[in-house]
Amino acid sequence: MKLTLKLLLLLLFVLSNHHHADSSSIVKFLPGFEGPLPFELETGYIGIGEEEEAQLFYYFIKSENNPEEDPLLLWLNGGPGCSSNTGLLLEIGPVALTSEVYNGSVPSLVSTTYSWTKVASIIFLDQPVGAGFSYSKTPLGKTSDTNEVKMIHEFLQKWLSKHPQYYSNPFYATGDSYAGMIIPAVVDEISKGNYICCNPPINLQGYVLGNPVTHIEMEINYRIPFAYGMSFISDELYESLKIFCKGNYFNVDPSNTKCLKLVEEFNKCTENINIHQILIPNCDHTNTEEISPDCFYYRYHLLERWSNKDSVRKALHIHKGTKGQWLRYNHSIPYDKNIKSSIPYHMNNSINGYRSLIFSGDHDMVLPSFATQAWIKSLNYSITHDWKPWMIKDQIAGYTRTYANKMTFATIKGCGHTPEYLPEETSIMFKRWISGQFL
Fold first, then answer.
1. Could you tell me which Gene3D superfamilies the record lists for this protein (predicted)?
2. Each residue of 148-166: pLDDT tens digit?
3. Residue 328 carries which DSSP code?
4. Residue 191 within a domain
5. Is 417 among the residues known to form the active site?
6. Which of 223, 255, 270 corresponds to the end of one domain?
7. Does pLDDT of 318 surpass 60?
């Protein structure tokens, strides 16, 4: 009887360790990168829900500085439906794809100088289910903003229970674009959850958002004054738009035919502008199969070729048979955008005393910096450090302002919709802010 019990215990031990090995794995080499990785990378899945049907995939990179004390970040890309691998390999990570014409082999990776992992540990999370390498064991149902917030909170609790050494590290939720609808609500959810039994509290300190979607019905109207400020439309057209549309340019009453005609004229003037970065040629980035190597977004093609290589999936410990074609941006995920404005969450987070950095590339026409400044102004917090340039090597890198609610707003001069356009400048800004310096 004792022998049988010992064998059972031994079997349970082996099975539990085998399961843990399956759920997360250390990656020492990546196809396309020469030699061992100069940083610590772990990949894995966290099951969400009682039956753990949802399997959220993550890349975790340990801080290259002092991982025992440095901040822990969660990074989300936008969409919804963009893989966080976009953030890792194109925006803020320690390796990046090299710009080369694809020849059928594994695209090359090189080390970067601008990685946020120089000062922080980062969890890059593929969410919602269906984005990147995240998958569902059952047919994919419709998800929503509010559902994602709860799933991300559960993910963090489970991830930290498997990595308890990070409970004491300052935690920041970060991301860009559509993450602006999710991150403020996640911060609010974590804050509330920290006061409920029975998980250890997450050491939440604040959040960082780049060119965030906040209240899109209001924000898109700022494309008109932005276009005017950039001399894309005439004085006369701008004045007429203001008179006949009264600030509402994209949800126009069908009976307001004069406004509709003026908006049509505006669209003709700007239809060939790359609204993600107005200085970059407007090449098609939606069809990654036929994209030209001359296009800035050819890197999306390389990213998809890299991520779909069997050798890459093996290196990343992707569960076999869980993902067909990997897409950088999966548009087909059934999704209900049921948070119409994240401004109330920003307000709650301010009241609760969390720090925040909101930054805008000032050449982004998708979400112009004017729009971001407008909703920040609506929070009605007093200014503690007024508008001033922030500098890199005696050159203006952007402008910044700080508010009494511990919110810092910063522009990045010449940057577009995400950090991929100016990763070096974005990194310097982030490193100063996270260390408590004024920009």
1. alpha/beta hydrolase
2. 999 999 999 999 999 999 9
3. S
4. yes
5. yes
6. 270
7. yes
pLDDT-based confidence at 284, cuts 50/70/90?
confident
Look at residue 12 and tell me whether its pLDDT is greater than 70.
no
Q: 148 and 244: one domain? A: no
Strands in 252-351 per DSSP E:
335-336
Q: Which of 126, 176, 417, 427 is catalytic?
A: 417
Q: Burial code of 205-221, b = ≥16 C-beta within 10 A, e = fewer?
A: bbbbbbbbbbbbebbbb
Both 239 and 148 in one domain: the answer is no
Looking at this protein, which amino acid is placed at residue 223?
R
Task: Note whether residue 7 is domain-resident.
Answer: no
| 3-state DSSP percent of the chain in helix, strand and coil, to 5 | 35, 20, 45
Q: Of residues 121, 177, 342, 356, which has the active-site annotation? A: 177
Q: Which residues contact 4 (CB under 8 A, 6 or more apart)?
A: none
Q: Which residues contact 343 (CB under 8 A, 6 or more apart)?
A: 214, 215, 375, 378, 379
pLDDT at position 23 = 66
Q: Which domain holds residue 239?
A: 233-270
Task: Say which DSSP state 355 is in.
Answer: E
pTM for the model: 0.92
User: pLDDT tens-digit profile of 202-229?
Assistant: 999 999 999 999 999 999 999 999 999 9
Query: How many domains are there within the chain?
Result: 2
Give yes or no: 177 in active site: yes
Residue 364 and residue 240 share a domain = no
Per the residue annotation, which of 350, 364, 369, 427 is the catalytic one? Answer: 364
Residue 300 lies in a domain: no
- Average pLDDT of the chain is 93
- Check whether residue 347 and residue 256 sit in a common domain: no
Catalytic residue flag (residue 364): yes
State whether 70 and 167 are in the same domain.
yes
Are residues 48 and 162 both part of a single domain? yes
* CA proximity to 347, closest of 141, 132, 191: 191
Q: Report the C-alpha gap between 245 and 231 in whole angstroms.
A: 20
Q: What CATH number has the domain bearing residue 133? A: 3.40.50.1820
Q: Do 353 and 205 lie in a common domain?
A: yes
Residues 210, 238 share a domain: no
Residue 1 belongs to a domain = no
